[in-house]
Amino acid sequence: MILITGATGNTGPEIVKAVLSRGERVRVLARSPEIAVRLLGEDVEIARGDLADPQSIEAAMEEVDRAFLASAPAPDTFKNLRRVTRAMLYPPMGFVVRLETSIASVSGYAARDKLCADIATLQAGA
Questions:
Q1: Number of domains in the chain
Q2: For residue range 21-76, what is the model confidence (pLDDT) as tens digits?
Q3: Contact present, 29 and 60 (Cβ < 8 Å)
Q4: Confidence band (pLDDT; 50, 70, 90) for 87?
Q5: d(CA 62, CA 83)
Q6: How many angstroms from the chain centroid is the CA of residue 82?
Q7: pLDDT of residue 65
Q8: Backbone dihedral angles phi then psi of residue 101, each to the nearest 5 degrees
């Protein structure tokens, strides 16, 4: 299973769609599961939580072996992503991809399309 954070943001829905198109199981971490269901549909498992809440991260990571971490720029973004990345190292995951969404937003759809294509080609353990 792949955990995706930032799935309800500007880039996240496209990432979810690309990963689902590969037949992968997807779980998203969302502060508002109601919004996530409306935006992402029923094929996605949703874990209520926030990057600032270590307990919700731990719960969302159950049975996860790969992750895509995206988050909007905020004062604690680096600290939160670092906490999540560290938690994902034990036990080790197949791969973890981190994206600072402010970078993807600058280049618009071209960057988003390339990123989706790159993510869709990743294989477990690659």
A1: 1
A2: 989 999 999 999 999 999 999 999 999 998 888 889 888 988 888 888 877 666 77
A3: yes
A4: low
A5: 16
A6: 14
A7: 82
A8: -65, -20
3-class SS of residue 36: helix
Spatial distance between the Cα atoms of 124 and 87, rounded to a whole number of angstroms = 19
Residue 26 structural domain: 2-121
91 prior amide bond cis, ω within 30: yes
Is 73 inside a domain boundary? yes
**CA count, 13 A, side-chain hemisphere, 36:** 21
For residue 32 the two structure tokens come to 């508002």
Residue 126 counted as domain residue = no
The structure tokens listed for 18 are: 């690309």
Residue 109 included in any domain: yes
Confidence of residue 79 (pLDDT cuts 50, 70, 90): confident
